[in-house]
Amino acid sequence: MTLSRFKHVSLTLLFTAFLSAPSISFAKDVATPTAKPLTYEDRALWLSLPQTEIEAGDETYLITELKSTQNPTRLYLWIGEPANTNDGDALTIKGLTNSGTVWYLDTPEALFMDRTRIAMRRLDGQFLKNLMLHATQQFKEIVVITADVASVPTLRGLHLWQQTADKTQRNQLKNVILLYPSLFVNAPAAGEKPEFFPISYQTALPITILQPAVGTQANTIGLSAKALKMGGSLVQTIQVPIATDGYYKYQDIEIMAKDAAQRIQSSTQQQIEHVQQIGYQVAKLSPIETPIPKSKIVSGMVALNPPMPMPNIQLESLDGEVIDVLKAYKGKALLINFWATWCPHCVEEIPSMNRALEQLDDDKFAMVSISYKDTRALLEAFVKEVKVDFPILLDRDGKVSEQWNIFAFPSSFLVDANGLIRYSLNAGSIWDSPEMLDYQREVMAIPYAPK
Q: Is residue 1 part of a domain?
Protein backbone atom coordinates (compact mmCIF):
# COMPACT_ATOMS: atom_id res chain seq x y z
CA MET A 1 0.00 0.00 0.00
CA THR A 2 1.37 3.44 -0.90
CA LEU A 3 1.69 6.22 1.66
CA SER A 4 -0.91 8.34 -0.14
CA ARG A 5 -3.32 5.41 -0.01
CA PHE A 6 -2.63 4.98 3.71
CA LYS A 7 -3.26 8.65 4.43
CA HIS A 8 -6.69 8.33 2.85
CA VAL A 9 -7.46 5.22 4.91
CA SER A 10 -6.11 6.72 8.14
CA LEU A 11 -8.00 9.99 7.74
CA THR A 12 -11.22 8.15 7.00
CA LEU A 13 -10.88 5.84 9.98
CA LEU A 14 -9.92 8.59 12.41
CA PHE A 15 -12.67 10.88 11.20
CA THR A 16 -15.21 8.09 11.67
CA ALA A 17 -13.89 7.41 15.18
CA PHE A 18 -14.07 11.10 16.04
CA LEU A 19 -17.69 11.39 14.99
CA SER A 20 -18.59 8.40 17.16
CA ALA A 21 -16.79 9.85 20.20
CA PRO A 22 -18.52 11.93 22.92
CA SER A 23 -19.43 15.39 21.66
CA ILE A 24 -17.17 18.35 22.34
CA SER A 25 -18.26 21.99 22.38
CA PHE A 26 -16.28 24.06 19.91
CA ALA A 27 -15.65 27.75 19.45
CA LYS A 28 -18.80 29.09 17.80
CA ASP A 29 -17.21 31.59 15.42
CA VAL A 30 -15.14 29.14 13.41
CA ALA A 31 -16.67 28.00 10.14
CA THR A 32 -18.29 24.58 10.03
CA PRO A 33 -16.30 21.86 8.25
CA THR A 34 -16.43 21.79 4.47
CA ALA A 35 -17.33 18.68 2.50
CA LYS A 36 -13.68 18.17 1.58
CA PRO A 37 -11.49 17.79 4.69
CA LEU A 38 -8.43 19.98 4.80
CA THR A 39 -5.12 18.18 5.12
CA TYR A 40 -1.84 18.83 6.89
CA GLU A 41 -0.36 20.20 3.66
CA ASP A 42 -3.04 22.86 3.08
CA ARG A 43 -1.63 26.40 3.54
CA ALA A 44 -3.75 28.69 1.34
CA LEU A 45 -5.67 30.22 4.25
CA TRP A 46 -2.51 30.64 6.31
CA LEU A 47 -0.72 32.47 3.49
CA SER A 48 -3.65 34.90 3.19
CA LEU A 49 -3.35 36.13 6.79
CA PRO A 50 -1.93 39.60 7.47
CA GLN A 51 1.65 39.99 8.70
CA THR A 52 3.33 42.89 10.43
CA GLU A 53 6.70 43.73 11.94
CA ILE A 54 7.17 44.36 15.64
CA GLU A 55 10.17 46.19 17.04
CA ALA A 56 11.05 44.82 20.47
CA GLY A 57 14.33 44.91 22.39
CA ASP A 58 16.29 46.43 19.47
CA GLU A 59 15.11 43.55 17.25
CA THR A 60 12.45 43.36 14.58
CA TYR A 61 10.16 40.33 14.42
CA LEU A 62 7.79 39.42 11.59
CA ILE A 63 4.52 38.11 13.01
CA THR A 64 1.10 37.07 11.78
CA GLU A 65 -1.37 39.35 13.59
CA LEU A 66 -5.14 38.95 13.93
CA LYS A 67 -6.76 41.70 15.98
CA SER A 68 -9.75 41.15 18.22
CA THR A 69 -12.68 43.55 18.18
CA GLN A 70 -14.33 41.80 21.15
CA ASN A 71 -11.48 41.81 23.68
CA PRO A 72 -8.64 44.19 22.77
CA THR A 73 -7.08 43.85 26.25
CA ARG A 74 -5.91 40.22 25.85
CA LEU A 75 -3.06 38.94 23.68
CA TYR A 76 -2.49 35.35 22.64
CA LEU A 77 1.25 35.20 21.91
CA TRP A 78 1.85 32.00 19.94
CA ILE A 79 5.44 30.75 19.56
CA GLY A 80 5.55 28.43 16.55
CA GLU A 81 7.25 25.02 16.47
CA PRO A 82 9.65 23.77 13.74
CA ALA A 83 6.90 22.30 11.54
CA ASN A 84 5.54 24.44 8.73
CA THR A 85 2.47 26.48 9.55
CA ASN A 86 -0.73 25.33 7.87
CA ASP A 87 -4.44 26.05 7.66
CA GLY A 88 -5.00 24.32 10.99
CA ASP A 89 -2.93 27.04 12.66
CA ALA A 90 -4.83 29.68 10.70
CA LEU A 91 -8.23 28.37 11.73
CA THR A 92 -7.18 28.03 15.36
CA ILE A 93 -5.92 31.57 15.71
CA LYS A 94 -9.00 32.90 13.88
CA GLY A 95 -11.08 31.02 16.44
CA LEU A 96 -9.19 32.74 19.28
CA THR A 97 -9.93 36.28 18.10
CA ASN A 98 -13.34 36.30 19.80
CA SER A 99 -11.46 36.53 23.11
CA GLY A 100 -8.21 38.30 22.24
CA THR A 101 -5.73 39.54 19.66
CA VAL A 102 -3.28 36.95 18.32
CA TRP A 103 0.41 37.36 17.51
CA TYR A 104 1.78 34.22 15.85
CA LEU A 105 5.54 34.02 15.54
CA ASP A 106 6.64 31.46 12.95
CA THR A 107 9.81 31.01 14.96
CA PRO A 108 12.14 29.44 12.36
CA GLU A 109 11.13 31.98 9.71
CA ALA A 110 11.23 35.00 12.04
CA LEU A 111 14.62 34.05 13.52
CA PHE A 112 16.15 32.87 10.22
CA MET A 113 16.93 29.41 11.56
CA ASP A 114 16.66 25.83 10.33
CA ARG A 115 13.32 24.09 10.78
CA THR A 116 14.78 21.34 12.95
CA ARG A 117 13.98 20.11 16.42
CA ILE A 118 17.61 20.37 17.50
CA ALA A 119 17.89 24.00 16.37
CA MET A 120 14.70 24.85 18.25
CA ARG A 121 15.91 23.25 21.47
CA ARG A 122 19.14 25.30 21.35
CA LEU A 123 17.44 28.73 21.37
CA ASP A 124 18.13 30.73 24.53
CA GLY A 125 14.71 32.45 24.49
CA GLN A 126 15.93 36.06 24.31
CA PHE A 127 13.47 36.73 21.48
CA LEU A 128 10.54 35.87 23.75
CA LYS A 129 11.80 38.10 26.55
CA ASN A 130 11.83 40.98 24.04
CA LEU A 131 8.31 40.19 22.83
CA MET A 132 6.95 39.85 26.37
CA LEU A 133 8.34 43.21 27.47
CA HIS A 134 6.78 44.78 24.39
CA ALA A 135 3.45 42.97 24.78
CA THR A 136 2.93 43.92 28.44
CA GLN A 137 3.04 47.60 27.42
CA GLN A 138 0.05 47.11 25.11
CA PHE A 139 -2.14 44.41 26.68
CA LYS A 140 -3.47 43.78 30.19
CA GLU A 141 -3.59 39.99 29.79
CA ILE A 142 -1.02 37.78 28.04
CA VAL A 143 -1.53 34.11 27.20
CA VAL A 144 1.54 32.41 25.76
CA ILE A 145 0.96 29.37 23.54
CA THR A 146 3.50 26.96 22.13
CA ALA A 147 3.88 23.32 21.16
CA ASP A 148 6.19 20.32 21.13
CA VAL A 149 9.94 21.17 21.27
CA ALA A 150 9.24 24.92 21.07
CA SER A 151 8.19 24.57 24.72
CA VAL A 152 11.88 24.50 25.72
CA PRO A 153 12.98 27.93 24.36
CA THR A 154 9.58 29.35 25.35
CA LEU A 155 10.16 28.45 29.00
CA ARG A 156 13.73 29.77 28.77
CA GLY A 157 12.49 33.07 27.35
CA LEU A 158 9.84 33.44 30.03
CA HIS A 159 12.47 32.77 32.70
CA LEU A 160 14.61 35.58 31.24
CA TRP A 161 11.59 37.87 31.21
CA GLN A 162 10.75 37.02 34.84
CA GLN A 163 14.23 38.21 35.86
CA THR A 164 13.57 41.79 34.73
CA ALA A 165 9.77 42.28 34.59
CA ASP A 166 8.16 44.11 37.49
CA LYS A 167 5.35 42.63 39.59
CA THR A 168 2.56 44.22 37.57
CA GLN A 169 4.03 42.96 34.30
CA ARG A 170 4.60 39.47 35.67
CA ASN A 171 1.00 39.11 36.77
CA GLN A 172 -0.23 40.18 33.34
CA LEU A 173 0.82 36.67 32.23
CA LYS A 174 -2.39 34.68 32.78
CA ASN A 175 -1.55 31.29 31.31
CA VAL A 176 1.09 29.37 29.39
CA ILE A 177 -0.46 26.78 27.07
CA LEU A 178 1.84 23.89 26.20
CA LEU A 179 0.43 21.75 23.38
CA TYR A 180 1.88 18.21 23.54
CA PRO A 181 5.15 19.57 25.04
CA SER A 182 8.46 17.77 24.52
CA LEU A 183 10.81 18.87 27.30
CA PHE A 184 13.43 16.19 26.74
CA VAL A 185 17.09 16.66 25.84
CA ASN A 186 17.15 13.78 23.39
CA ALA A 187 14.87 11.41 21.56
CA PRO A 188 16.21 8.33 23.36
CA ALA A 189 16.76 4.85 22.08
CA ALA A 190 13.61 2.75 22.21
CA GLY A 191 13.03 1.54 25.75
CA GLU A 192 15.24 4.16 27.45
CA LYS A 193 13.94 6.90 29.74
CA PRO A 194 14.45 10.45 28.46
CA GLU A 195 16.35 13.25 30.22
CA PHE A 196 14.63 16.58 30.91
CA PHE A 197 16.08 19.95 30.00
CA PRO A 198 16.89 21.76 33.28
CA ILE A 199 14.48 24.59 32.41
CA SER A 200 11.65 22.10 32.99
CA TYR A 201 12.17 22.16 36.75
CA GLN A 202 13.43 25.78 36.89
CA THR A 203 10.08 27.18 35.73
CA ALA A 204 7.47 28.87 37.96
CA LEU A 205 4.42 29.79 35.91
CA PRO A 206 0.69 29.09 35.53
CA ILE A 207 0.83 26.32 32.92
CA THR A 208 -1.83 24.33 31.08
CA ILE A 209 -0.80 21.19 29.22
CA LEU A 210 -3.12 20.12 26.41
CA GLN A 211 -2.06 16.55 25.68
CA PRO A 212 -3.66 14.45 22.92
CA ALA A 213 -4.80 11.20 24.50
CA VAL A 214 -3.34 9.06 21.72
CA GLY A 215 -0.23 11.13 21.06
CA THR A 216 3.33 9.86 21.43
CA GLN A 217 3.88 12.05 24.50
CA ALA A 218 0.83 10.71 26.33
CA ASN A 219 2.81 8.16 28.35
CA THR A 220 5.32 10.73 29.59
CA ILE A 221 3.13 13.78 30.15
CA GLY A 222 2.79 12.97 33.86
CA LEU A 223 6.58 13.11 34.18
CA SER A 224 6.63 16.47 32.40
CA ALA A 225 3.94 17.89 34.69
CA LYS A 226 5.85 16.66 37.74
CA ALA A 227 9.08 18.30 36.53
CA LEU A 228 7.29 21.62 35.99
CA LYS A 229 5.70 21.49 39.42
CA MET A 230 9.14 20.99 41.00
CA GLY A 231 10.05 24.56 40.03
CA GLY A 232 6.86 26.04 41.45
CA SER A 233 4.61 25.99 38.39
CA LEU A 234 0.85 25.75 38.79
CA VAL A 235 0.08 22.98 36.31
CA GLN A 236 -3.23 21.70 34.98
CA THR A 237 -3.17 18.81 32.48
CA ILE A 238 -6.05 18.26 30.07
CA GLN A 239 -6.29 15.20 27.84
CA VAL A 240 -7.69 15.72 24.34
CA PRO A 241 -9.76 12.76 23.10
CA ILE A 242 -8.96 11.29 19.66
CA ALA A 243 -6.27 13.87 18.79
CA THR A 244 -2.66 12.92 18.15
CA ASP A 245 0.40 15.09 18.72
CA GLY A 246 0.28 17.90 16.23
CA TYR A 247 -3.54 18.16 16.20
CA TYR A 248 -3.49 18.95 12.48
CA LYS A 249 -1.32 16.11 11.19
CA TYR A 250 -3.82 13.35 10.55
CA GLN A 251 -7.31 14.57 11.41
CA ASP A 252 -9.71 16.89 9.64
CA ILE A 253 -8.02 20.24 10.25
CA GLU A 254 -11.23 22.24 10.63
CA ILE A 255 -12.63 19.96 13.31
CA MET A 256 -9.40 19.88 15.30
CA ALA A 257 -8.84 23.64 14.95
CA LYS A 258 -12.23 24.25 16.55
CA ASP A 259 -11.30 21.89 19.35
CA ALA A 260 -7.93 23.57 19.92
CA ALA A 261 -9.36 27.10 19.98
CA GLN A 262 -12.15 26.11 22.37
CA ARG A 263 -9.79 24.29 24.73
CA ILE A 264 -7.25 27.11 24.78
CA GLN A 265 -9.93 29.62 25.75
CA SER A 266 -11.77 27.47 28.30
CA SER A 267 -8.59 26.19 29.98
CA THR A 268 -7.28 29.75 30.23
CA GLN A 269 -10.45 30.82 32.02
CA GLN A 270 -10.08 27.86 34.38
CA GLN A 271 -6.48 28.80 35.09
CA ILE A 272 -7.33 32.45 35.74
CA GLU A 273 -10.03 31.43 38.22
CA HIS A 274 -7.67 29.00 39.96
CA VAL A 275 -4.90 31.60 40.20
CA GLN A 276 -7.30 34.10 41.74
CA GLN A 277 -8.70 31.51 44.14
CA ILE A 278 -5.34 30.56 45.63
CA GLY A 279 -3.58 33.92 45.18
CA TYR A 280 -0.84 32.55 42.92
CA GLN A 281 1.77 35.12 41.84
CA VAL A 282 4.20 34.92 38.91
CA ALA A 283 7.49 35.23 40.76
CA LYS A 284 10.62 37.21 40.05
CA LEU A 285 13.39 34.72 39.25
CA SER A 286 17.16 34.70 39.48
CA PRO A 287 19.39 34.02 36.47
CA ILE A 288 20.05 30.41 35.50
CA GLU A 289 23.71 29.46 35.30
CA THR A 290 23.14 25.93 34.00
CA PRO A 291 24.48 25.58 30.43
CA ILE A 292 22.07 24.39 27.75
CA PRO A 293 22.56 20.64 27.24
CA LYS A 294 23.36 19.50 23.72
CA SER A 295 20.45 17.78 22.08
CA LYS A 296 20.80 14.91 19.65
CA ILE A 297 18.56 12.40 17.97
CA VAL A 298 19.19 8.72 18.64
CA SER A 299 18.29 6.78 15.52
CA GLY A 300 19.01 3.46 13.86
CA MET A 301 19.25 0.03 15.39
CA VAL A 302 20.74 0.19 18.89
CA ALA A 303 22.35 -2.84 20.53
CA LEU A 304 21.58 -3.37 24.22
CA ASN A 305 24.75 -4.23 26.09
CA PRO A 306 24.10 -6.15 28.24
CA PRO A 307 20.82 -7.52 26.88
CA MET A 308 17.76 -6.90 29.07
CA PRO A 309 14.92 -9.27 29.97
CA MET A 310 11.78 -8.16 28.18
CA PRO A 311 8.81 -7.07 30.32
CA ASN A 312 6.11 -9.63 29.72
CA ILE A 313 3.05 -8.66 27.71
CA GLN A 314 -0.45 -9.95 28.42
CA LEU A 315 -2.98 -8.31 26.13
CA GLU A 316 -6.08 -9.21 24.19
CA SER A 317 -5.57 -9.89 20.51
CA LEU A 318 -7.74 -8.57 17.74
CA ASP A 319 -9.26 -12.06 17.65
CA GLY A 320 -10.44 -11.62 21.25
CA GLU A 321 -7.92 -14.02 22.87
CA VAL A 322 -5.71 -12.88 25.77
CA ILE A 323 -2.10 -13.57 24.75
CA ASP A 324 0.71 -14.10 27.26
CA VAL A 325 3.61 -13.36 24.93
CA LEU A 326 6.39 -15.14 26.85
CA LYS A 327 4.29 -18.29 27.16
CA ALA A 328 2.73 -18.20 23.70
CA TYR A 329 6.09 -17.73 21.97
CA LYS A 330 8.35 -19.68 24.33
CA GLY A 331 11.61 -20.62 22.60
CA LYS A 332 11.11 -18.20 19.69
CA ALA A 333 12.93 -15.02 18.81
CA LEU A 334 10.57 -12.05 18.41
CA LEU A 335 10.16 -8.75 16.68
CA ILE A 336 7.93 -6.74 19.04
CA ASN A 337 6.57 -3.67 17.30
CA PHE A 338 4.74 -0.76 19.03
CA TRP A 339 2.63 1.23 16.58
CA ALA A 340 -0.63 3.10 15.96
CA THR A 341 -2.94 3.42 12.98
CA TRP A 342 -2.51 7.21 12.88
CA CYS A 343 1.28 6.94 12.48
CA PRO A 344 2.27 6.95 8.77
CA HIS A 345 5.71 5.41 9.32
CA CYS A 346 4.12 2.62 11.35
CA VAL A 347 1.79 1.69 8.52
CA GLU A 348 4.47 2.12 5.86
CA GLU A 349 6.61 -0.60 7.41
CA ILE A 350 3.83 -3.24 7.68
CA PRO A 351 4.24 -4.60 4.12
CA SER A 352 7.97 -5.04 4.66
CA MET A 353 7.27 -6.88 7.93
CA ASN A 354 4.94 -9.22 6.05
CA ARG A 355 7.62 -9.87 3.43
CA ALA A 356 10.32 -10.42 6.07
CA LEU A 357 8.20 -13.07 7.78
CA GLU A 358 8.11 -15.04 4.54
CA GLN A 359 11.93 -15.21 4.56
CA LEU A 360 12.39 -16.24 8.19
CA ASP A 361 11.92 -19.60 9.92
CA ASP A 362 8.49 -19.49 11.54
CA ASP A 363 9.55 -22.27 13.94
CA LYS A 364 12.20 -19.95 15.39
CA PHE A 365 10.89 -16.42 14.78
CA ALA A 366 7.62 -14.50 15.15
CA MET A 367 6.34 -10.93 15.06
CA VAL A 368 3.95 -9.37 17.56
CA SER A 369 2.53 -5.87 17.16
CA ILE A 370 1.21 -3.76 20.04
CA SER A 371 -1.42 -1.25 18.95
CA TYR A 372 -1.29 1.90 21.08
CA LYS A 373 -4.75 3.03 22.24
CA ASP A 374 -6.48 2.15 18.98
CA THR A 375 -10.02 0.88 19.43
CA ARG A 376 -11.11 -2.57 18.30
CA ALA A 377 -13.53 -1.02 15.78
CA LEU A 378 -10.77 1.13 14.29
CA LEU A 379 -8.39 -1.83 14.00
CA GLU A 380 -11.02 -4.09 12.49
CA ALA A 381 -11.67 -1.48 9.80
CA PHE A 382 -7.93 -0.98 9.34
CA VAL A 383 -7.07 -4.64 8.68
CA LYS A 384 -9.76 -4.76 5.99
CA GLU A 385 -7.72 -2.18 4.11
CA VAL A 386 -4.17 -3.13 5.12
CA LYS A 387 -2.89 -6.70 5.10
CA VAL A 388 -1.25 -7.64 8.42
CA ASP A 389 0.29 -11.13 8.63
CA PHE A 390 1.10 -11.10 12.35
CA PRO A 391 -0.92 -10.79 15.58
CA ILE A 392 -2.16 -7.39 16.74
CA LEU A 393 -2.49 -6.96 20.51
CA LEU A 394 -4.55 -4.10 21.92
CA ASP A 395 -2.83 -1.79 24.40
CA ARG A 396 -6.08 0.09 25.06
CA ASP A 397 -4.89 2.19 28.01
CA GLY A 398 -1.24 2.51 26.93
CA LYS A 399 0.05 0.85 30.11
CA VAL A 400 2.18 -1.74 28.31
CA SER A 401 3.71 0.96 26.11
CA GLU A 402 4.46 2.95 29.25
CA GLN A 403 6.08 -0.09 30.88
CA TRP A 404 8.33 -0.48 27.83
CA ASN A 405 9.24 3.27 27.93
CA ILE A 406 7.89 3.87 24.44
CA PHE A 407 8.80 7.42 23.45
CA ALA A 408 8.09 7.37 19.71
CA PHE A 409 6.07 5.43 17.18
CA PRO A 410 6.95 3.07 15.72
CA SER A 411 9.34 1.51 18.25
CA SER A 412 10.58 -2.03 17.75
CA PHE A 413 12.56 -4.56 19.74
CA LEU A 414 14.39 -7.71 18.66
CA VAL A 415 14.15 -10.30 21.44
CA ASP A 416 16.02 -13.61 21.45
CA ALA A 417 14.46 -17.00 22.25
CA ASN A 418 15.39 -16.57 25.93
CA GLY A 419 13.36 -13.38 26.30
CA LEU A 420 16.35 -11.01 26.22
CA ILE A 421 16.08 -7.73 24.30
CA ARG A 422 19.09 -7.55 21.97
CA TYR A 423 18.25 -4.53 19.79
CA SER A 424 15.86 -1.58 19.78
CA LEU A 425 14.79 0.84 17.06
CA ASN A 426 12.79 4.07 17.53
CA ALA A 427 11.88 4.64 13.87
CA GLY A 428 10.24 2.93 10.94
CA SER A 429 12.23 0.50 8.85
CA ILE A 430 12.19 -1.70 5.75
CA TRP A 431 12.28 -5.00 7.56
CA ASP A 432 12.99 -7.14 4.50
CA SER A 433 16.04 -5.11 3.48
CA PRO A 434 19.30 -7.10 3.65
CA GLU A 435 20.48 -5.11 6.68
CA MET A 436 17.29 -5.63 8.70
CA LEU A 437 17.05 -9.30 7.73
CA ASP A 438 20.61 -9.78 9.01
CA TYR A 439 19.61 -8.34 12.41
CA GLN A 440 16.58 -10.59 12.63
CA ARG A 441 18.55 -13.68 11.59
CA GLU A 442 21.30 -12.84 14.07
CA VAL A 443 18.83 -12.79 16.95
CA MET A 444 16.99 -15.84 15.64
CA ALA A 445 20.29 -17.79 15.63
CA ILE A 446 20.88 -17.34 19.38
CA PRO A 447 20.23 -20.78 20.93
CA TYR A 448 17.29 -21.30 23.24
CA ALA A 449 18.56 -22.30 26.71
CA PRO A 450 15.57 -23.38 28.83
CA LYS A 451 16.05 -22.90 32.53
A: no
Q: Are residues 307 and 266 in the same domain?
A: no
Cβ atoms of 87 and 43 closer than 8 Å: yes
Rg (C-alpha) for the chain, rounded Å, is: 23
Amino acid 2: pLDDT: 38
Whether 26 and 142 share a structural domain:
yes
Q: Using an 8 Å Cβ cutoff, are 422 and 300 in contact? A: no
On whether the CB atoms of residues 349 and 429 are closer than 8 A, the answer is yes
pLDDT attached to residue 16? 34
Q: In angstroms, rounded to a whole number, what is the distance separating the alpha carbons of residues 312 and 68?
A: 54
CB 105 within 8 A of CB 131: yes
The answer to pTM > 0.90 is no
| Secondary structure element (H or E) that encloses residue 234, with its range | strand 234-240
Starting at the earlier edge strand, list the strands of the sheet with 411-415.
302-309, 420-425, 411-415, 333-339, 365-372, 392-395
DSSP-derived secondary structure letter, 50: -
Phi, psi of 364 (to 5 degrees): -120, -10
* Residue ranges of the chain whose pLDDT lies below 50: 1-34
Q: Is the peptide bond before 410 cis (omega within 30 degrees of 0)?
A: yes
Residue 319 lies in domain: 302-444
